[in-house]
């Protein structure tokens, strides 16, 4: 009985430590602001494979991080000059059950491949403004001085 309680206590402590570290990581990564955004990590099943996360805009790059991860690197990095929105749609099928009605899904293409992002319509407005806001010649800006 005591052994079982110790195992349960150890598991609870591990979960608590994970949640605290996840919160600290997000606070550190989004100190200049972030936007809630889900990304589709797998397309094996129709409408499935979505992971919650957040995006951080830094100069000409959008960096997307998984919500529940301890990794400090982004899962996706999208360069503003390299991204094209190929499709905008509402959630359908199983997606309509996990996303609220005010969410739009964008399929984005870049040199590194395709990614689907799900975000609120106000976040879509911000994302599209960010894409269009690059000054002429900005595609040659490397982000380094």
- Largest sheet report: 5 strands, antiparallel
Overall outline: globular
**Per CATH, what is the topology?**
PH-domain like
**Rounded average pLDDT:** 84
CATH top level label = Mainly Beta
- Runs in which pLDDT lies below 50 for 5 or more consecutive residues are 139-145
Task: Count the domains.
Answer: 1
Order of helices and strands: HEEEEEEEHEEH
Bin the strand percentage.
25-35%
CATH superfamily: Pleckstrin-homology domain (PH domain)/Phosphotyrosine-binding domain (PTB)
Using DSSP, what is the number of strands? 9
Q: How large, in whole angstroms, is the Cα Rg? A: 18 Å
- The CATH architecture category equals Roll
Summing up helix and strand content along with how strands pair, one would put the structural category as: alpha+beta
Describe this structure in words.
The protein contains 3 helices and 9 strands; from the N terminus they run H-E-E-E-E-E-E-E-H-E-E-H. It is α+β, with helices and mostly antiparallel strands. The protein has a single domain, classed as Pleckstrin-homology domain (PH domain)/Phosphotyrosine-binding domain (PTB) (PH-domain like), CATH 2.30.29.30. Strands 3-2-9-8-7 form a 5-stranded antiparallel β-sheet. Strands 1-4-5-6 form a 4-stranded antiparallel β-sheet, with no helix packed on it. A hairpin with a 2-residue loop joins strand 4 (53-58) and strand 5. It is globular. Pfam families: DUF2550. This is DUF2550 family protein. InterPro entries: DUF2550. It comes from Glycomyces algeriensis.
């Amino acid at each position: 009985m005591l052994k079982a309680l110790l195992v349960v206590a150890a598991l609870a402590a591990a979960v608590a430590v994970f949640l605290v570290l996840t919160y600290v990581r997000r606070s550190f990564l989004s100190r200049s602001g972030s936007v809630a955004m889900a990304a589709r990590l797998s397309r094996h099943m129709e409408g499935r494979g979505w992971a919650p996360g957040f995006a951080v805009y830094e100069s000409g790059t959008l960096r997307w991080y998984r919500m529940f991860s301890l990794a400090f690197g982004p899962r996706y990095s999208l360069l503003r000059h390299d991204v094209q929105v190929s499709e905008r749609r509402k959630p359908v099928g199983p997606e309509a059950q996990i996303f609220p009605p005010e969410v739009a899904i964008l399929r984005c293409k870049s040199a590194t491949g395709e990614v689907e992002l799900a975000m609120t319509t106000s976040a879509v407005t911000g994302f599209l403004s960010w894409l269009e806001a690059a000054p002429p010649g900005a595609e040659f800006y490397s982000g380094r001085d």
